[in-house]
Amino acid sequence: MVKKILITGATGFIGRYCCKEILARGNDYLAIVRKESDLQKNSKAVLADLSNREELMKVIEEYRPDAVLHLAAIAAVTFGNISEIYNTNISVTENLLEAIYNTCDSGTRVVLVSTAGIYGNQKDLYYYENMPYDPVNHYSYSKMVMEYMSRQYADKLDIKIVRPFNIVGYGQNQNFFLPKLVRSFASRQESIKLGNIGSERDYVNVEYCVNVLVELLTRSKIEIDKLNICSGVATSGTNIIDMLKEISGYTPEIQISNNLVRKNEVWRLVGSNERMLEFLGKEKYSGNSIYDILDNMYHNYYNELDKKCN
């Protein structure tokens, strides 16, 4: 049976990949966008304001989705407008849930995209879904509140919360650490200023993340309510730099800038993928290694820059 999926944040990095995967599996989607220009890029989009409940209810009533994927958010930890972080990540989410609750059938699946940042700094090496919240920045705080807030709609809606770790790939916003660094190598930047390069992260290629999301949206019955999307592999900024040197054959000057060092740094953010693998019916993680991800990103950026020069 073809599933009808309503998507917010469809024009973002993960959203664009999700739209392609949903169609590739023979399902349908409708993307809620906020700019007129986005309508021209996507024939399966509709213009609506996520803060306007009446507009949302009208869209939902007309489309009658089987499932909803909520990706729209301010996802940058360093985003400067704090009030906008909370308004977008909490108030807008509540508005959407309220509209779904009042319009959709009982049991409608809603996948809310949270963040691994809600774990903060823990004593354990691998972070499990049942660990306590310990966020250290406004972005993660807002996602923690979003998770709590969503519980009041769980009596009617089938809410699933995903906690992605570091989702990366070609096409990601250059403001994020990894694409910014890869592009710096591809452009042969002589000197690169960075913050903490000793902290460890868990990197997952975007295609693998999208596969998990679409499974959550389309599978008929799912017992779990929270799910990490992670590789379970720790990689430091220093490791990333060493791999890029090997891939590119280039060694820039690396400068550590105090202005780029985050206060309240999370020094190790690596997830347990046990629940995710059980959900997928896999014995081990099958996503691309961080080296392969970097290699793909580097050569895409290098070719992109080469075309511009020629």
UniProtKB/TrEMBL annotation:
<feature type="domain" description="NAD-dependent epimerase/dehydratase">
    <location>
        <begin position="5"/>
        <end position="220"/>
    </location>
</feature>
<comment type="similarity">
    <text>Belongs to the NAD(P)-dependent epimerase/dehydratase family.</text>
</comment>
<dbReference type="InterPro" id="IPR036291">
    <property type="entry name" value="NAD(P)-bd_dom_sf"/>
</dbReference>
<dbReference type="Pfam" id="PF01370">
    <property type="entry name" value="Epimerase"/>
</dbReference>
<protein>
    <submittedName>
        <fullName>NAD-dependent epimerase/dehydratase family protein</fullName>
    </submittedName>
</protein>
<dbReference type="InterPro" id="IPR001509">
    <property type="entry name" value="Epimerase_deHydtase"/>
</dbReference>
